[in-house]
Amino acid sequence: MNKEKDSSRKGFAPFRWLRRMFFGASKELTIADERFDSPSKLAVKRFFRKPLATLAVVVLISMFLFVFIGSAISPVDLTETGSEMLHTNMAPTMSLMKLPEGMKDGAVDISSRGSFTIGVDTDGQVYMWGHYFNVSGEASRNVMNIPAEVKNSKIVHVAAGSDHCVAISEDGHVYCWGEYDNGQYGLNGSMIASARKQPEELIDGTIDASAVRQLICGNQVTAILMEDGTIYAWGNDGLCATNLSSIIKHGKQESKLVKLAFTNDGLYGIDENGTFVCGKSTKYNVITVQDENGNNVTKDLFEYIGERRVVDIAAAGNALALVTDDGEIIVSGMKEALPEFPEEERAVAVSGGTRHFVLVTDRGTVYAWGQNFRNQCNVPEKFQEAGAVDTVFSSGFQNYAFKEGKFVGSWGLKGYLMGTDDMGRDVFNRIMNGGKMTMTVGAVAVIVSTIIGIIIGCLSGYFGGMVDILLMRLTEIFGAIPFLPFALCLSAIFQATNIRENTRIFIIMVILGVLSWTGLARLVRGQILAEREKEFVTAARSMGVREKRIAFRHILPNIVSVILVTVTLDFASCMLTESSLSYLGFGVQLPRPTWGNMLNGSRNALVIQSYWWRWLFPALFLSIVVICINIIGDTLRDVLDPKSEVEK
User: Fold this and answer.
1) Reported pTM
2) What does each C-alpha distance from 158 to 117, 129, 233 come to in angstroms?
3) Who's near 600: CB < 8 A, 6+ residues apart?
4) Quick one: which of 77, 83, 62 has its CA closest to 439?
5) How many helices (H) and strands (E) does the chain have?
6) Are the beta carbons of 83 and 73 closer than 8 angstroms?
7) Do residues 268 and 223 make contact, with C-beta atoms less than 8 angstroms apart?
8) 520 Cβ contact list (under 8 Å, min separation 6)
């Protein structure tokens, strides 16, 4: 408030009235503080007085930040590394690495090959965590349902396969559950011809649990190694353990095996002499090492080991890791580089996950290597210090570190916030990057259509006559083109050509813009026709202002509010059109994601019924953005109209 207004309020009111009666009020007369807001400022005030419109702006800005900043931080991986076939169609979960509280005071074993993990604590209690989709729907086949007899027994060994689990109790019973059609356990199911049947003595009888050296599971196969070297093995050895018979034969006829490891298609081990045993398989008999010049050279594995003894073995899906008695780590079948650690450190124990290995040295430090697409090799710094860890269980895509029997931390894959699709790709990441593509296509298309519509509308409305007739006939021709069929035809033509992906996406943007300008052109023309008859246009003409300048610099700014509303609504329409094209398979093509082609991958009854997260989240994000844009556009239409009765 100004000083004159402040001074008029000083003193007792009756005295001020008397002074004004006898001496006048010219010195104290207040001048009304009338303030006028510009139309734009008034429109902004009116806009943000509407709670729904304000909420829509906040949500839309959040969506833009989410898709553009998020996709920059975590770009989509369009190669095969972005997929994980062991995690296909996984429901939203963040519990894959959540170790149960009961196991934090001590773990005997932790095992996993995919999306679920099984563990047993020092008290013999079995725990399971993670996720498993039961395709059959039968409760008896759901591997996450631990049998009652297992819960009521003291378990000393557990192992998890890709779709089944095995446990051995203290009294020697062997319990199996999960899928069984490929010989995983028992004598039920289709029992394919290549399956090795489970020994009957393990089905109906017991074994000496104290004499069990190792229990391991692979992909639909299981093996039990006894202290005397006896091997009980069964399952789909025709596909998942092709050298199983030769390994068992080696243990019987040549030397006793002391440790085994399953890859995706074979069984490997080390015997009491410290020799690597591969049976009839030669898949991992060659390794790649660096020579003195730093060049990669291939060598025979057995020649490279020489007289040294192998003291530990671990397997990933398609790789093997061996630890020799002099502390060297030897890896075959993995292209990723081995970790570098000081020469004074010696490798002691190695464990394998599905795609990676973890090494513990004699100083108690931890190193990990292999595929790191699920963060399974990101070892926390605290575990890289001497004496931090003495045991690490690598299971699937997670790692659990223990020190003196106590859980001290974990790292790896926590889960998928919005699940995975049929290729094992993270839906959350694809929604984030797909939203960037959908919004970019919509924005470029609406920019193209706006430029064309404004130019055509301005020229037609201002000049009239033959120019108006020609331009409006052109507009009618474009308006008569059936939009969606024409876009589908053009997209199909481009798909048949050898155009680069980025170029084709840009062409799609231009097509959307070129085919959607007619409505804006007609609207601009109508507004220009009304504006050109006003006095300021006549005044500009009388001053000799050029026609082009009058049309685009004097008249056009007066209808910018109408254009702004139309452009806002057209943005939502272009996003929906792009999504429709992608949904029909004629827009942006996979594996590059958009919200439309993500919905396209969900258009069948099985996905809709069983994998709800694959269609719900893309549809939800697309709906929210479009609704917010429409709310903003409708509100702008109201607040930019000076004749609106909304605020009265």
Assistant:
1) 0.81
2) 10, 14, 15
3) 582, 583, 584, 585
4) 62
5) 19, 23
6) no
7) no
8) 449, 450, 453, 454, 457, 563, 566, 567, 570
pLDDT of res. 647: 46
Cβ–Cβ < 8 Å for 154, 162: no
Give the range among 144-158, 202-216, 265-279, 567-581 with minimum mean pLDDT.
Answer: 567-581
Q: Are 157 and 212 in contact (CB under 8 A)?
A: yes
Altogether, the residues listed in the chain come to a count of 648
Taking CB atoms within 8 Å and a gap of at least 24, the contacts of 527-533 are 527/457, 527/461, 527/559, 527/562, 528/457, 528/458, 528/460, 528/461, 528/462, 528/555, 528/556, 528/559, 529/461, 529/464, 531/555, 531/558, 531/559, 532/461, 532/462
Sorted by sequence, the CB contacts under 8 Å of residue 265 that are 6+ apart come out as 219, 239, 240, 241, 242, 283, 318
CB atoms under 10 Å from CB of 178, counted, come to 24
Q: How crowded is residue 203: how many other Cβ atoms within 10 Å of its Cβ?
A: 14
Q: What pLDDT digit, counting tens, does each position of 90-108 carry?
A: 999 999 999 999 999 999 9
Backbone φ and ψ of 187, nearest 5°: -120, 15
Residues 45-90: tens digit of each pLDDT: 888 888 999 999 999 999 999 999 998 888 887 776 678 888 888 9
Whole-angstrom distance, CA of residue 618 vs CA of residue 598? 7
Angle, CA of 46, 52 and 55, to the nearest 5°: 100
**Alpha helices, DSSP H, located in 190-264:** 200-204, 244-253
Query: Residue 16: is it exposed, middle or buried by C-beta count within 10 angstroms (0-12/13-18/19+)?
Result: middle
- 611-638 tens-digit pLDDT: 899 999 999 999 999 899 889 888 887 8
